[in-house]
Specification:
Among the domains are: 198 residues, no CATH class; 91 residues, GMP Synthetase, Chain A, domain 3 (2-Layer Sandwich), CATH 3.30.300. It has 479 residues and is an alpha/beta fold. The protein is built from 13 helices and 20 strands. The structure holds zinc ion. The site of zinc ion (ZN) has 7 residues, from loops. Zinc ion binds next to loops.
Protein backbone atom coordinates (compact mmCIF):
# COMPACT_ATOMS: atom_id res chain seq x y z
CA UNK A 1 0.00 0.00 0.00
CA UNK A 2 1.25 3.45 -0.85
CA UNK A 3 2.13 5.80 1.96
CA UNK A 4 -0.42 8.52 2.70
CA UNK A 5 0.46 11.67 0.80
CA UNK A 6 1.83 13.59 3.72
CA UNK A 7 4.46 10.99 4.59
CA UNK A 8 6.21 11.12 1.22
CA UNK A 9 9.09 13.59 1.03
CA UNK A 10 9.32 15.76 -2.07
CA UNK A 11 12.18 14.37 -4.10
CA UNK A 12 12.74 13.82 -7.79
CA UNK A 13 16.01 12.07 -8.66
CA UNK A 14 15.80 12.78 -12.41
CA UNK A 15 15.23 16.46 -11.79
CA UNK A 16 18.12 16.56 -9.34
CA UNK A 17 20.45 14.95 -11.87
CA UNK A 18 19.46 17.41 -14.58
CA UNK A 19 19.81 20.42 -12.29
CA UNK A 20 23.08 19.07 -10.89
CA UNK A 21 24.62 18.82 -14.36
CA UNK A 22 23.53 22.35 -15.11
CA UNK A 23 24.86 23.71 -11.79
CA UNK A 24 28.23 22.07 -12.51
CA UNK A 25 28.32 23.39 -16.11
CA UNK A 26 27.84 27.03 -15.12
CA UNK A 27 31.24 27.08 -13.39
CA UNK A 28 32.80 26.48 -16.81
CA UNK A 29 30.46 28.62 -18.92
CA UNK A 30 31.35 31.87 -17.18
CA UNK A 31 29.47 35.13 -16.83
CA UNK A 32 27.82 34.81 -20.25
CA UNK A 33 26.36 31.42 -19.38
CA UNK A 34 25.00 32.78 -16.11
CA UNK A 35 23.38 35.78 -17.79
CA UNK A 36 21.77 33.55 -20.45
CA UNK A 37 20.36 31.19 -17.82
CA UNK A 38 19.08 34.10 -15.73
CA UNK A 39 17.29 35.62 -18.71
CA UNK A 40 15.72 32.33 -19.85
CA UNK A 41 14.59 31.39 -16.35
CA UNK A 42 13.16 34.85 -15.70
CA UNK A 43 11.07 34.62 -18.88
CA UNK A 44 9.75 31.22 -17.78
CA UNK A 45 8.95 32.51 -14.28
CA UNK A 46 7.08 35.55 -15.59
CA UNK A 47 5.11 33.38 -17.99
CA UNK A 48 3.99 31.06 -15.18
CA UNK A 49 3.28 33.98 -12.82
CA UNK A 50 1.06 35.68 -15.40
CA UNK A 51 -0.75 32.48 -16.36
CA UNK A 52 -1.32 30.92 -12.95
CA UNK A 53 -1.12 33.59 -10.22
CA UNK A 54 -4.17 35.86 -10.01
CA UNK A 55 -2.15 38.36 -7.96
CA UNK A 56 0.70 38.54 -10.47
CA UNK A 57 -1.75 38.96 -13.33
CA UNK A 58 -2.60 42.27 -11.63
CA UNK A 59 0.99 43.19 -10.77
CA UNK A 60 2.72 42.43 -14.07
CA UNK A 61 2.34 44.78 -17.05
CA UNK A 62 -0.29 43.75 -19.59
CA UNK A 63 2.23 43.40 -22.42
CA UNK A 64 4.23 40.18 -22.31
CA UNK A 65 7.88 41.01 -23.01
CA UNK A 66 8.81 37.55 -21.74
CA UNK A 67 7.40 36.01 -24.91
CA UNK A 68 10.68 36.96 -26.56
CA UNK A 69 13.50 39.46 -26.22
CA UNK A 70 14.88 41.09 -23.11
CA UNK A 71 12.81 41.39 -19.93
CA UNK A 72 13.40 44.61 -18.03
CA UNK A 73 13.29 43.42 -14.45
CA UNK A 74 13.75 46.94 -13.05
CA UNK A 75 10.44 47.98 -14.63
CA UNK A 76 8.45 45.41 -12.62
CA UNK A 77 6.76 46.16 -9.27
CA UNK A 78 8.63 45.61 -6.00
CA UNK A 79 6.79 43.22 -3.68
CA UNK A 80 6.66 43.03 0.13
CA UNK A 81 5.80 40.10 2.35
CA UNK A 82 2.80 41.59 4.22
CA UNK A 83 0.99 42.47 0.98
CA UNK A 84 1.75 39.06 -0.58
CA UNK A 85 0.67 37.19 2.57
CA UNK A 86 -2.59 39.14 2.65
CA UNK A 87 -3.48 37.71 -0.76
CA UNK A 88 -1.81 34.31 -0.32
CA UNK A 89 -4.47 32.26 -2.12
CA UNK A 90 -4.25 34.56 -5.18
CA UNK A 91 -0.45 34.68 -5.01
CA UNK A 92 0.26 30.94 -5.29
CA UNK A 93 0.21 29.39 -8.76
CA UNK A 94 -1.81 26.30 -7.81
CA UNK A 95 -5.46 26.84 -6.79
CA UNK A 96 -5.32 23.67 -4.67
CA UNK A 97 -3.09 25.50 -2.16
CA UNK A 98 -5.13 27.41 0.43
CA UNK A 99 -3.50 29.32 3.27
CA UNK A 100 -5.93 27.91 5.81
CA UNK A 101 -4.94 24.34 4.94
CA UNK A 102 -1.24 25.17 4.85
CA UNK A 103 -1.56 26.66 8.34
CA UNK A 104 -3.25 23.47 9.61
CA UNK A 105 -0.37 21.45 8.13
CA UNK A 106 2.21 23.78 9.72
CA UNK A 107 0.52 23.42 13.10
CA UNK A 108 1.26 19.67 13.11
CA UNK A 109 4.83 18.94 14.31
CA UNK A 110 4.65 15.35 12.97
CA UNK A 111 4.48 16.65 9.41
CA UNK A 112 7.76 18.60 9.43
CA UNK A 113 9.64 17.80 6.19
CA UNK A 114 6.81 15.81 4.60
CA UNK A 115 4.85 16.71 1.47
CA UNK A 116 1.90 19.07 1.45
CA UNK A 117 -0.77 17.89 -1.05
CA UNK A 118 1.66 15.10 -1.88
CA UNK A 119 3.92 17.37 -3.94
CA UNK A 120 5.06 20.50 -2.10
CA UNK A 121 7.46 21.33 0.72
CA UNK A 122 6.23 24.10 3.00
CA UNK A 123 7.90 26.08 5.75
CA UNK A 124 7.29 29.20 7.76
CA UNK A 125 9.61 32.05 8.62
CA UNK A 126 9.95 33.03 12.24
CA UNK A 127 9.07 36.71 12.08
CA UNK A 128 11.03 38.56 14.76
CA UNK A 129 8.75 41.40 13.74
CA UNK A 130 5.62 41.36 11.66
CA UNK A 131 3.67 38.40 10.37
CA UNK A 132 5.58 35.17 9.70
CA UNK A 133 5.80 34.24 6.04
CA UNK A 134 4.52 30.94 4.67
CA UNK A 135 6.57 29.51 1.81
CA UNK A 136 5.64 26.72 -0.61
CA UNK A 137 8.30 25.00 -2.74
CA UNK A 138 7.81 22.70 -5.71
CA UNK A 139 9.97 19.70 -6.68
CA UNK A 140 12.04 21.80 -9.10
CA UNK A 141 12.90 24.34 -6.37
CA UNK A 142 13.89 21.55 -3.96
CA UNK A 143 16.08 19.93 -6.64
CA UNK A 144 17.79 23.29 -7.25
CA UNK A 145 18.38 23.84 -3.51
CA UNK A 146 19.71 20.28 -3.17
CA UNK A 147 22.09 20.68 -6.12
CA UNK A 148 23.36 24.07 -4.98
CA UNK A 149 23.94 22.83 -1.43
CA UNK A 150 25.71 19.70 -2.64
CA UNK A 151 27.80 21.08 -5.50
CA UNK A 152 28.58 24.65 -4.54
CA UNK A 153 29.56 24.13 -0.92
CA UNK A 154 33.30 24.22 -0.60
CA UNK A 155 34.58 21.45 1.61
CA UNK A 156 37.60 21.99 3.83
CA UNK A 157 38.20 18.20 3.70
CA UNK A 158 38.15 17.29 -0.02
CA UNK A 159 39.69 13.85 0.56
CA UNK A 160 37.08 12.97 3.14
CA UNK A 161 34.33 14.01 0.68
CA UNK A 162 35.88 11.89 -2.08
CA UNK A 163 35.74 8.74 0.02
CA UNK A 164 32.44 9.69 1.68
CA UNK A 165 30.43 11.95 -0.65
CA UNK A 166 27.12 11.20 1.12
CA UNK A 167 28.35 12.07 4.62
CA UNK A 168 27.66 8.49 5.75
CA UNK A 169 30.56 8.47 8.21
CA UNK A 170 29.74 11.89 9.65
CA UNK A 171 27.84 12.68 12.81
CA UNK A 172 25.98 15.92 12.23
CA UNK A 173 24.58 17.93 15.12
CA UNK A 174 22.19 20.73 14.27
CA UNK A 175 21.60 23.20 17.07
CA UNK A 176 18.68 25.44 16.22
CA UNK A 177 14.94 25.83 16.43
CA UNK A 178 13.18 22.50 16.55
CA UNK A 179 9.71 23.61 17.53
CA UNK A 180 8.30 24.63 14.17
CA UNK A 181 8.32 24.12 10.41
CA UNK A 182 11.34 26.37 9.83
CA UNK A 183 13.41 26.03 6.64
CA UNK A 184 16.48 24.56 8.36
CA UNK A 185 14.55 21.92 10.31
CA UNK A 186 12.28 21.06 7.39
CA UNK A 187 15.35 20.51 5.17
CA UNK A 188 16.98 18.20 7.71
CA UNK A 189 13.76 16.26 8.36
CA UNK A 190 13.21 15.89 4.62
CA UNK A 191 16.74 14.45 4.28
CA UNK A 192 16.05 12.09 7.14
CA UNK A 193 12.85 10.89 5.47
CA UNK A 194 14.72 10.39 2.20
CA UNK A 195 17.59 8.53 3.85
CA UNK A 196 16.19 6.71 6.90
CA UNK A 197 19.53 4.95 7.42
CA UNK A 198 21.08 8.34 8.18
CA UNK A 199 18.86 8.70 11.24
CA UNK A 200 21.47 7.85 13.85
CA UNK A 201 24.02 10.22 12.35
CA UNK A 202 21.74 13.28 12.55
CA UNK A 203 20.98 14.90 15.83
CA UNK A 204 18.90 18.03 16.24
CA UNK A 205 19.06 19.95 19.49
CA UNK A 206 16.84 22.81 20.47
CA UNK A 207 18.69 26.06 21.07
CA UNK A 208 15.99 26.95 23.58
CA UNK A 209 17.28 24.37 26.07
CA UNK A 210 19.50 25.34 29.02
CA UNK A 211 23.14 25.65 27.99
CA UNK A 212 24.32 22.96 30.45
CA UNK A 213 21.92 20.43 28.84
CA UNK A 214 23.05 21.34 25.33
CA UNK A 215 26.68 20.95 26.35
CA UNK A 216 26.07 17.54 27.99
CA UNK A 217 24.16 16.23 24.98
CA UNK A 218 26.75 17.47 22.49
CA UNK A 219 29.54 15.94 24.56
CA UNK A 220 27.69 12.59 24.48
CA UNK A 221 26.96 12.75 20.74
CA UNK A 222 30.47 13.96 19.75
CA UNK A 223 29.54 15.45 16.36
CA UNK A 224 32.04 15.56 13.49
CA UNK A 225 30.02 18.40 11.96
CA UNK A 226 28.33 21.11 13.98
CA UNK A 227 25.68 23.16 12.17
CA UNK A 228 24.06 26.18 13.77
CA UNK A 229 23.51 29.93 13.81
CA UNK A 230 26.57 32.12 14.39
CA UNK A 231 25.19 33.29 17.76
CA UNK A 232 24.78 29.69 18.92
CA UNK A 233 28.28 28.79 17.67
CA UNK A 234 29.57 31.78 19.67
CA UNK A 235 27.78 30.49 22.76
CA UNK A 236 29.17 26.97 22.28
CA UNK A 237 32.69 28.27 21.58
CA UNK A 238 32.49 30.10 24.90
CA UNK A 239 31.51 26.82 26.60
CA UNK A 240 34.44 25.07 24.91
CA UNK A 241 36.83 27.81 26.00
CA UNK A 242 35.62 27.41 29.58
CA UNK A 243 36.30 23.68 29.30
CA UNK A 244 32.69 22.49 29.63
CA UNK A 245 32.19 21.52 25.99
CA UNK A 246 34.73 18.95 24.84
CA UNK A 247 33.67 18.20 21.25
CA UNK A 248 36.21 18.19 18.38
CA UNK A 249 34.18 18.79 15.19
CA UNK A 250 36.05 18.61 11.88
CA UNK A 251 33.79 21.25 10.32
CA UNK A 252 31.38 23.90 11.54
CA UNK A 253 28.58 25.10 9.28
CA UNK A 254 26.87 28.38 9.98
CA UNK A 255 23.95 30.19 8.40
CA UNK A 256 20.77 32.07 9.19
CA UNK A 257 22.39 35.09 10.83
CA UNK A 258 25.33 37.36 10.10
CA UNK A 259 28.68 35.72 10.79
CA UNK A 260 31.19 38.36 11.83
CA UNK A 261 34.92 37.90 11.28
CA UNK A 262 35.50 37.96 15.04
CA UNK A 263 33.04 35.15 15.80
CA UNK A 264 34.47 33.04 12.98
CA UNK A 265 38.03 33.52 14.20
CA UNK A 266 37.08 32.80 17.80
CA UNK A 267 35.23 29.57 16.91
CA UNK A 268 38.00 28.38 14.56
CA UNK A 269 40.56 28.96 17.26
CA UNK A 270 38.60 27.30 20.07
CA UNK A 271 37.41 24.27 18.06
CA UNK A 272 40.50 23.97 15.88
CA UNK A 273 38.56 23.53 12.64
CA UNK A 274 37.27 25.75 9.88
CA UNK A 275 33.91 27.48 9.87
CA UNK A 276 31.98 27.46 6.59
CA UNK A 277 29.25 30.01 6.24
CA UNK A 278 26.36 30.06 3.82
CA UNK A 279 23.64 32.56 3.05
CA UNK A 280 20.08 31.42 2.68
CA UNK A 281 16.57 32.51 3.51
CA UNK A 282 13.09 31.04 3.67
CA UNK A 283 12.56 32.77 0.34
CA UNK A 284 15.51 30.97 -1.31
CA UNK A 285 17.33 28.33 0.66
CA UNK A 286 20.77 28.50 -0.98
CA UNK A 287 21.40 32.12 -1.98
CA UNK A 288 25.16 31.83 -1.63
CA UNK A 289 27.98 29.61 -0.45
CA UNK A 290 31.62 30.12 0.46
CA UNK A 291 34.45 29.22 -1.90
CA UNK A 292 37.91 27.95 -0.93
CA UNK A 293 38.98 31.58 -0.50
CA UNK A 294 36.33 32.09 2.16
CA UNK A 295 34.27 34.48 0.05
CA UNK A 296 30.54 34.20 -0.43
CA UNK A 297 29.39 33.64 -4.03
CA UNK A 298 25.77 34.31 -4.99
CA UNK A 299 24.10 31.51 -6.98
CA UNK A 300 23.21 34.03 -9.67
CA UNK A 301 22.09 31.39 -12.17
CA UNK A 302 19.06 30.62 -9.93
CA UNK A 303 18.47 33.75 -7.88
CA UNK A 304 18.61 37.43 -8.87
CA UNK A 305 19.64 39.91 -6.18
CA UNK A 306 19.19 43.66 -6.70
CA UNK A 307 20.79 45.79 -3.95
CA UNK A 308 18.81 49.02 -3.40
CA UNK A 309 19.13 52.17 -1.28
CA UNK A 310 16.50 53.57 1.19
CA UNK A 311 14.46 54.89 -1.73
CA UNK A 312 14.58 51.67 -3.70
CA UNK A 313 17.15 52.90 -6.24
CA UNK A 314 19.62 50.34 -7.61
CA UNK A 315 23.16 50.41 -6.19
CA UNK A 316 26.38 49.64 -8.09
CA UNK A 317 28.91 47.00 -6.96
CA UNK A 318 31.00 48.14 -3.99
CA UNK A 319 28.08 49.83 -2.17
CA UNK A 320 26.35 48.23 0.82
CA UNK A 321 22.60 48.27 0.27
CA UNK A 322 19.71 49.29 2.50
CA UNK A 323 17.76 46.26 1.31
CA UNK A 324 17.93 43.72 -1.48
CA UNK A 325 15.27 42.60 -3.93
CA UNK A 326 15.16 38.87 -4.53
CA UNK A 327 13.80 37.05 -7.58
CA UNK A 328 13.60 33.27 -7.14
CA UNK A 329 14.13 31.65 -10.56
CA UNK A 330 13.74 28.09 -9.27
CA UNK A 331 10.31 28.04 -7.64
CA UNK A 332 7.23 28.51 -9.83
CA UNK A 333 4.51 27.56 -7.36
CA UNK A 334 4.81 30.77 -5.30
CA UNK A 335 6.45 33.41 -7.51
CA UNK A 336 8.87 35.74 -5.74
CA UNK A 337 9.72 38.58 -8.11
CA UNK A 338 11.61 41.68 -6.90
CA UNK A 339 10.74 40.71 -3.33
CA UNK A 340 12.04 43.04 -0.60
CA UNK A 341 14.18 40.72 1.50
CA UNK A 342 15.47 43.37 3.94
CA UNK A 343 19.12 42.26 4.08
CA UNK A 344 22.02 44.58 3.39
CA UNK A 345 24.07 43.14 0.51
CA UNK A 346 27.22 44.47 -1.13
CA UNK A 347 28.40 43.07 -4.46
CA UNK A 348 32.20 43.03 -4.74
CA UNK A 349 33.50 45.16 -7.57
CA UNK A 350 36.33 42.71 -8.34
CA UNK A 351 36.06 39.01 -9.27
CA UNK A 352 37.27 36.42 -6.76
CA UNK A 353 40.75 34.91 -7.01
CA UNK A 354 39.15 31.43 -6.96
CA UNK A 355 38.09 31.95 -10.59
CA UNK A 356 34.37 31.34 -10.08
CA UNK A 357 32.20 33.39 -12.45
CA UNK A 358 29.56 33.71 -9.71
CA UNK A 359 29.52 37.20 -8.14
CA UNK A 360 31.01 37.74 -4.68
CA UNK A 361 28.67 39.26 -2.10
CA UNK A 362 28.92 40.42 1.50
CA UNK A 363 25.80 40.24 3.62
CA UNK A 364 24.64 41.94 6.74
CA UNK A 365 21.47 40.25 8.00
CA UNK A 366 18.29 42.03 8.90
CA UNK A 367 18.23 40.67 12.40
CA UNK A 368 19.77 43.72 14.07
CA UNK A 369 18.53 47.27 14.52
CA UNK A 370 20.49 50.51 14.44
CA UNK A 371 20.14 52.22 17.85
CA UNK A 372 19.06 55.86 17.80
CA UNK A 373 20.42 57.32 21.04
CA UNK A 374 20.29 60.88 22.37
CA UNK A 375 23.38 62.87 23.33
CA UNK A 376 23.65 65.41 26.20
CA UNK A 377 22.36 68.19 23.94
CA UNK A 378 19.32 66.11 22.88
CA UNK A 379 20.67 65.39 19.40
CA UNK A 380 20.26 61.97 17.78
CA UNK A 381 23.28 59.69 17.72
CA UNK A 382 22.94 56.52 15.64
CA UNK A 383 24.92 53.43 16.54
CA UNK A 384 25.00 50.81 13.81
CA UNK A 385 24.72 47.17 14.90
CA UNK A 386 27.90 46.25 13.00
CA UNK A 387 29.88 48.93 14.90
CA UNK A 388 28.48 47.76 18.23
CA UNK A 389 29.21 44.08 17.57
CA UNK A 390 32.70 44.91 16.31
CA UNK A 391 33.36 46.89 19.49
CA UNK A 392 32.17 44.12 21.82
CA UNK A 393 33.59 41.18 19.84
CA UNK A 394 36.92 42.50 18.64
CA UNK A 395 37.85 45.08 21.27
CA UNK A 396 36.27 43.51 24.35
CA UNK A 397 36.42 39.84 23.32
CA UNK A 398 32.80 39.01 24.20
CA UNK A 399 31.09 37.01 21.48
CA UNK A 400 27.84 36.07 23.14
CA UNK A 401 26.01 39.29 23.98
CA UNK A 402 22.74 41.08 23.51
CA UNK A 403 22.04 44.80 23.71
CA UNK A 404 18.46 45.94 24.26
CA UNK A 405 17.62 49.61 24.14
CA UNK A 406 15.41 50.69 27.06
CA UNK A 407 15.41 54.44 26.47
CA UNK A 408 17.15 57.23 24.52
CA UNK A 409 20.13 56.97 26.92
CA UNK A 410 19.58 53.53 28.43
CA UNK A 411 20.76 50.12 27.31
CA UNK A 412 20.27 46.70 28.90
CA UNK A 413 23.20 44.36 28.43
CA UNK A 414 23.14 40.56 28.60
CA UNK A 415 25.82 37.97 28.02
CA UNK A 416 25.44 34.23 27.78
CA UNK A 417 28.56 33.00 29.57
CA UNK A 418 28.65 31.21 32.93
CA UNK A 419 27.88 33.23 36.05
CA UNK A 420 31.21 34.53 37.39
CA UNK A 421 32.56 34.89 33.88
CA UNK A 422 29.40 36.77 32.92
CA UNK A 423 29.90 39.42 35.59
CA UNK A 424 33.39 40.16 34.30
CA UNK A 425 32.26 40.17 30.67
CA UNK A 426 29.38 42.52 31.49
CA UNK A 427 31.70 44.92 33.25
CA UNK A 428 34.08 44.98 30.27
CA UNK A 429 31.23 45.53 27.79
CA UNK A 430 29.75 48.27 29.93
CA UNK A 431 33.10 50.08 30.12
CA UNK A 432 33.52 49.94 26.33
CA UNK A 433 29.99 51.22 25.74
CA UNK A 434 30.51 54.12 28.13
CA UNK A 435 33.71 55.04 26.28
CA UNK A 436 31.82 54.96 22.97
CA UNK A 437 29.05 57.10 24.47
CA UNK A 438 31.53 59.70 25.78
CA UNK A 439 33.12 59.88 22.33
CA UNK A 440 29.69 60.69 20.88
CA UNK A 441 28.80 63.31 23.52
CA UNK A 442 26.50 61.05 25.51
CA UNK A 443 27.91 61.28 29.04
CA UNK A 444 24.69 60.22 30.72
CA UNK A 445 24.54 56.69 29.23
CA UNK A 446 22.90 54.19 31.57
CA UNK A 447 24.00 50.62 31.06
CA UNK A 448 21.90 48.09 32.96
CA UNK A 449 23.86 44.88 33.39
CA UNK A 450 21.60 41.85 33.46
CA UNK A 451 23.68 38.89 34.69
CA UNK A 452 22.05 35.49 34.68
CA UNK A 453 19.44 36.53 32.13
CA UNK A 454 19.36 34.29 29.06
CA UNK A 455 19.62 35.94 25.65
CA UNK A 456 16.22 36.63 24.11
CA UNK A 457 15.64 34.38 21.12
CA UNK A 458 12.90 34.58 18.51
CA UNK A 459 10.67 31.57 17.86
CA UNK A 460 13.21 30.30 15.27
CA UNK A 461 15.96 30.34 17.90
CA UNK A 462 17.71 33.30 16.30
CA UNK A 463 19.11 36.02 18.49
CA UNK A 464 18.66 39.64 17.68
CA UNK A 465 21.98 41.02 18.96
CA UNK A 466 20.99 44.64 18.95
CA UNK A 467 17.35 45.47 19.67
CA UNK A 468 16.09 49.02 19.25
CA UNK A 469 13.49 50.62 21.51
CA UNK A 470 10.89 50.47 18.81
CA UNK A 471 11.59 47.76 16.30
CA UNK A 472 11.62 49.01 12.75
CA UNK A 473 8.23 48.20 11.18
CA UNK A 474 9.67 48.32 7.64
CA UNK A 475 7.65 45.95 5.39
CA UNK A 476 9.21 42.60 4.68
CA UNK A 477 11.52 43.00 7.57
CA UNK A 478 11.41 39.78 9.51
CA UNK A 479 13.42 36.61 9.48
ZN1 LIG B 1 35.77 32.65 -4.67
Amino acid sequence: MALPDFQVPVFDALRLTAVGLDVAAVQRLGAGGIAARQAGRLRALLRVARERSALYRELLPTSAPEAGGQVELAALAVTHKPALMERFDDWVADPAIRLEEVRTFLADPDRVGSAFLGRYIVWESSGTSGEPGVFVKDAQAMAVYDALEALRRHTPRPLQRMVDPLYLSERLAFVGATGGHFASVVSLERLRRLNPWLGAAFHTLSIMRPTAELVAELNAFAPTILASYPTAVALLAEQARLGALAIRPAEIWTGGETLTAAVREHAEQVFGCSVRNSYGASEFLAIGGECAHGRLHANADWVILEPVDERGRPLPPGKASHSVLLTNLANHVQPLIRYDLGDSVRFAAEPCACGSPLPVIEVRGREDDPLVMQDDAGRHVTWLPLALSTLLEEDVGVFDFQLVQRGPRTLALRVGASSEDAALALARCSKALHALARRDGLHGLRCIEEPGQPLLRGSSGKVQRVVALESDPRPGRST
